[in-house]
Amino acid sequence: MIEVTKFEITVLLHLRQKIMKNIFTAIICFCAFNLFAQDQPFIKQADTGMLPVFKENFRPQISIAPQVAYVSLSDLNSSGIGYGVELAMQCPLACTKKNYIRQQVSFLTYSDADLGYDYWTLSINPEYRLVVTPTFEWALGPSLGYINGSTADETSAGFAYGISTSATVHFGKFMLGISPRYVLAPDIQLEESELSQNSFQGIFKIGYKL
């Protein structure tokens, strides 16, 4: 039976309070940004249906966004801050009537110096975006990507899949977004440890509409 000391209980309670405080602060800040946001979301296409990219009035509405992410690989007991970039455009394959689909391509890299572990991923993430208000959107979508994880002794790489959700606030030509993403890579294991590289990515991004 595992014994837990009073000191350990105190530390766990303190950590829980700190985490809850940070989450509450982030929610308040995000709501404040939304309150003062400016109306300039992505414009829905005039035509709906399949393959809008071949239609005369298709507008890709490209955006680029630097990313900062909290990355956690639970099987490797590794977590920390990663960095990346995202390029996005209106979906060229399908266009819906009320809301819209946005296609995102992102690159993310993460390193754990203590483990001597380096990780990067290139993924595509189509999102179905719900226009909640003229300045605020909520989205949900799958992701498919290629990941590469390496230590000093070995490298393991392959395809992974996952799911993500996001919330976006528009500020004219700029946008602010948060996107929790869970990526499954059950077949991509570091051979010596036989541990998978499943990951959670809590992404924060500031984008600019080109």
Account of the 3D structure:
29% of the residues are buried. This protein is mostly beta strands and 210 residues long. The chain has one domain (37-209): Porin (Beta Barrel). The chain has one helix and twelve strands; from the N terminus they run αββββββββββββ. The protein has an eight-stranded antiparallel β-barrel. Strand 8 and strand 9 form a beta hairpin.
Q: Mean pLDDT, as a whole number?
A: 78
The global form is: globular
* Tally of helical segments: 1
**Low-confidence runs:** none
Overall number of structural domains: 1
SSE pattern, N- to C-terminal? HEEEEEEEEEEEE
The second-level CATH architecture is Beta Barrel
CATH domain fold name? Porin
Indicate the percent of residues in helices: 10-25%
Short note summarizing the structure:
This protein is mainly beta and 210 residues long. The chain is 14% helix and 54% strand.
Keywords:
mainly beta, 1 helix, 210 residues, 8-stranded antiparallel beta barrel, globular, 12 strands, Porin, two-stranded antiparallel sheet, 14% helix
Strand-helix topology:
Blueprint: H1 6-35, E1 49-50, E2 63-73, E3 78-90, E4 94-95, E5 100-112, E6 117-131, E7 136-150, E8 155-171, E9 174-184, E10 189-190, E11 195-196, E12 199-209
Antiparallel strand pairs: 1-4, 2-3, 2-12, 3-5, 5-6, 6-7, 7-8, 8-9, 9-12, 10-11
